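This section describes the prediction task in plain terms. A model, or a person checking by hand, is given the sequence of a single protein chain and must write out its three-dimensional structure as a string of C-alpha cells. No templates, partner chains or ligands are provided. The sample shown here is typical of the held-out split.
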Amino acid sequence: MLRPSAHEDTFARDNLPDFESWPALVLDGFNYPDRLNVAVELTESMVARGFGSRTALIGEDRQRTYQELNEWTNQLAHALVDDLGVRPGNRVLIRSANNPAFVACWLAVTKVGAVAVNTMPLLRATELVKYVEKAQVSHALCDTRLMDELLQCQNRCSELQSVAGFDGTSGHDAELDRLAVNKPKQFDSANTSQDDVALLAFTSGSTGEPKATMHFHRDLLIIADGYAKEILGVTPEDVFVGSPPLAFTFGLGGLAVFPLRFGATGVLYEAAAPPVMGEIIARHRATICFTAPTAYRVVLQSLENHDISSLRLAVSAGETLPGPIYDEWIAKTGKPILDGIGTTELLHIFISNRIGDHRGSCTGRPVNGYEAKVVDAEGKEVPAGITGSLALRGPTGCRYLCGDRQREYVQNGWNICGDAFSKDSEGYFHFAARNDDMIISSGYNIAGPEVESALLSHPSVAECAVVGAPDEARGFIVQAHVVLAEGALPGEETTKSLQDHVKATIAPYKYPRSVVFVDELPKTATGKVQRYRLRSSK
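The expected answer:
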C-alpha cells in the first residue's frame, strides 16, 4: 500500500505499473519515516549533523561546503516555485555535464517535490523529444552552453512549458542564477512520501529505444545505506572521483548521493575522460574512483606520471571487468578494484566484490538486502556452475513508467536483468554475457565477454568487442572488433596471431573466425560498448 502522496501533479503515481507486476520488495533493514525528502537528507540534515563547514562538492572552478550547498539549493528551490511555477509532481528535465550546478539543480527540484529527469548533455533534439513526451516534462533546467538542442526540442513539444538556463561554471550569470540570487536561504521542502517518485531514469537497454524507470525517495537512500555503507565503507574523509555522467544512476549514486549521504566530498569534472583520470585522482587526493574497465586500463598506462596512492579502492561497473585488467591493476597498484553489476531498473549495484574479498573474473556476492539466483527459461534455479539468467530481488526493483515491458523484466516477483551468469559452489556469481551477447555457433554456446578477455591478454590489443555474425554454415560465428595497441599493424599476420592466442587461452572452438580492425568502438558516455551497433552494422 502506497503512502499518501505530496504530488499535486499526479502523473508519476498514476503511471506506475500495475502493482501485481512489481517485483517483490524486501525492505528489511531499510527503515525510513513515512514522510521523506531525499534532498533534505543530503543537505539540510547533513548541516544539522555538524557537517556544514565540510566540503561537499568540488568542480573545476567552483566548490561548496554543505552549508553553502544547502543554502544554494534552497534559493534555487524558491526560484523554481516562485518564478517558474514548478509544483510537486511536475517532471523537470535537467541537462548538463558533470558539475556542482547539475547536482544543485537536481537537489532543488527534489526539495520542491518535483520529479527529476536527468539527461545526457550529448542528446540531440530528436532524442530529447522522446524523453519529454514519454515523461510529460513540463519544465527544463539547462546549462546555457547546451541550450540549442533543448530549445529545438521545446519548439516541437507543447508539454514543455518552461526552459530556464543556469551557469555550469562559476559565473552565476544565467536566468536561473539571477532569479535565485536574492531568494531566502531557507526553504520549506515538500513533505513527500518515502514512496513518492523522485527520479525518472531513462535506459536504452540493447535496443536504443528509451524506457523510463521510476525511483522513490527511499530508493536513493537505500543504495547509499546498502551498497555504499557495506561495500565501500564510506567515511567523511573520503573523496569521490569518476567519469560516469550524473544523468546515469551509476554516476548519480557514485558521485553525488554516496558522498553527500556520509559527509564526504564529490569531485565533479566535466572532462573526466580516462586520459586525465589519473591527474584528477592525484590533484584531489581521491580515495574512491568510479569508472568503467576501459578507463582503468588507460589509467594504468599513465601511472608513472601521477601519484594515485591516495586511492583506497576502485569501483568498476557498466561492463564486466576483464580478468587481465583486474590482474594488471592489482599488480601495479596493490589497491582493490571491485567489480560489480547493477542496472538502471534497480538503480545501482546489487552484486559486488568486497574490499577484503575480491578476485578476477568474478562479480562477487549480493549486496546486503538483495537475493540473487541463476534460473533457466522456466524460472527454475539451476545447479552451481550452470549458466542461466540472473534473477534478483531486494529493496529496490524495476518499475517502468506506464508499465512499458514491465512483465518482461519482472517474472514471478523477481527482476530478470538480461544477464547470463553462473553461481559457483561458494555462492560467488560469475558473469557470462548479456543474454543477447551469447553466441550460438554450430550448437556451441559462446559468451562474447570470455573471448574478449582472452583477446585483451594479447599485447597487440588495446580494446575489443565480440559479437555474433550471421554465417550460413554455422548459424553465427564469433566476430571480434579490435582496436590495436600502438605499434601493432592490422592484417592477416595479426589476425592469425590473435586467433591462435585465443585458441591457446580458452576452448579452441570459441576463437573469433572473423577479426575486424577498427579505430574505435561505439560506446555510451559511461564507457559501455554498444554491441548492438556492431551487430546492426553488418
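For orientation: The longest helix spans residues 66-82.
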